[in-house]
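Honest question from a wet-lab person: if I give you the sequences of every part of a complex, can you actually get the arrangement of the whole thing, not just the pieces? Trying it with mine:
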Amino acid sequence: MPQVGDLRAKMSSLLEALNKWLCGPITVMEVCGTHTVSIFRSGIRTMLPKDVRLLSGPGCPVCVTDQAEVDAMVSLAKKPGVVLATYGDMVRVPGSCGSLAEARSCGAEVAVVGSAIQALALAESMQDKEVVFAGIGFETTAPATAVLLREARRKNVKNLSVLSLHKLVPPVLRLLASDPTLVIDGFLLPGHVSTIIGTAPYAFLAEEYGKACAVAGFEPLDIMAGIVEIARQICGGRPAVRCLYGRVVRHEGNVKAQELLGEVFRPASVRWRGIGVVEASGLVLADDYSDFDAYSRFGITLEEVNPPAGCRCGDVLAGRIAPLECPLFGGSCTPQFPVGPCMVSSEGSCSAYYKYSSKGVSPWGA
Amino acid sequence: MGRLSLGHGSGGRLTNDLVKKIASAFARESGMLEFEDCALLPGGWGVTIDGFTVSPLSFPGGDIGKLAVCGSANDLAVRGVRPLWLAMSLLAEEGLDEEELFTYMRSAASVCAELGVQLVAGDTKVLPKGQADRLYIATCAMGKNEAISPWGIKEISPGDTVIVSGPVGRHGAVIASLRYDIKLRELESDCAPLWPLIEPLTRLLGVHAARDCTRGGLGTVLCEWAEVANVGIEIDEEAIPADGDVSAVSDILGFDPLYLACEGTAVFAVASEWTETVLETMRSHPLGRSAAAIGKVTEAHPGLVGLRTSAGGMRVVDMQGGELLPRIC
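Yes, you can. This is the full assembly:
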């Protein structure tokens, strides 16, 4: 439905360029869940040469939310007088004792918000309730949580708190890039996250680990251009971090948003689902905002919880296996009855494989 | 058996499964139900029933009253049945403003007048505060089958052209934009009675099936057709009539317009030699001005819907899995 008349022609010329540069098999990880979905929705996988292997990375905010974090959200939602507000398909992710959607069908109050600031309006309109905003997502959504907290303070709203589950992208990329068991030649870097942090925080990927990197937008042409650029860097032997999303991303990023993050949050080591604890990869509330911290207000501590038996979402997120290699894929784990978050989230790679290629094996290719 | 979730009401796979389970409880008395929008009864009559809940009750392009009449009347129309009679049940919450209620009733009456539909039966209940979301309406519509050849999923066959009557997803996009507070200047719901568009088509031989793309949108209707008729369907993304505002809302929220509800847009399976006649007939009515052939029914890949993307790739269109929720980033 996009009204780009000559899109197919432009894609063809990019494919020609890709074939020209390609010097052998390459493996590219698309870090961002939105990239994953766009790749599947536009059918890019069916167009690529066989020598280009795409892996989905840890950039789906729902998928990387640890089981213990889901459990904390569900237990908060079940508390009398609490309204749990959060984004999108977080509500469908199964925790140890059901999902937020199941809790809602049993009477818990769960509100889906399109933006963090809507949680403030909820709190103001429900003075007799405690509204808890479960802030998930990466550098992209964290500034919105920061704005919510600033506004809540300015308006002196007392019945609002934040359960910060935000995570940071560069630390987890360092973990993947430094893992000798993983074969990743290049990273298609996330456009939205880069809008906030700029391109400098990725420099180590090329300089220390020799990975080819391109920051790309989310339209099919952006993604294809990113893949061409990564092939060019790999085959030319010159890994770098190149931004192809200059219409949105500046080298220094969004400095105001970065200042806001620095004011409201502090980095902390947090657990990523299936990946484990990653040093300084999460954001918790700074001391100055501790009165809004849902962890202390409700006495929440996150204990390590084992994922469901057989679930290999962690290996999918780290690019160790493709979704089809998970023993549960398409059998006991489907979008209707998901076991792990990669099958739940609209940005999850298992869900994308299942939805856009007929349970993983499309009769139309890839 | 678990508990019902909002996903069971989304019109996608979960709804489909739930409806089949409910129908199986009646199988001994009712035989196998056809899972069409409207049942064709002996004597050439058609009947349908539908419940309407929408929040907010009033939206650009319509309100719950208009929606309740259009929805049922359209379910008849897409089987070639002229809507004639309507029964309506109101479930209102204590505290609803009477004038507001009558606004919706006048709106419903206006669609009835336009279609020549008579309200012949009704019921009104008021529920205690907190037991309903202001107002629910259920409507049952009945009419006379005027199609000169039968319309239904069973008639779909390989070689048929798939036609849509207009841009898809407008109703769903309007409701989503209101719910998630996205300001749009021009987008209106497509909520409209389809019979005036469809009536001339009932006199053509080549129409095999029609469906209004309500909950679950165009994508879900095509998946149902492919599965029930055991045919493949291939559509071309570039050919699908698009509305810029719908695309914008979908991009912001992470929705696929293919799954957004329509309330005045329908999809047709038409014998290939009738494609041009049907398109011309549709385009002569304002509701069908941007009607377009978007694909074809195939023998290959039975049960699957494939989409040739704007970028030139190919992907599967699956039935919507559950509740449509906005993306996170």
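Two things worth pointing out. The mean pLDDT of chain A is 94. The two ends of chain A are 22 Å apart (CA to CA).
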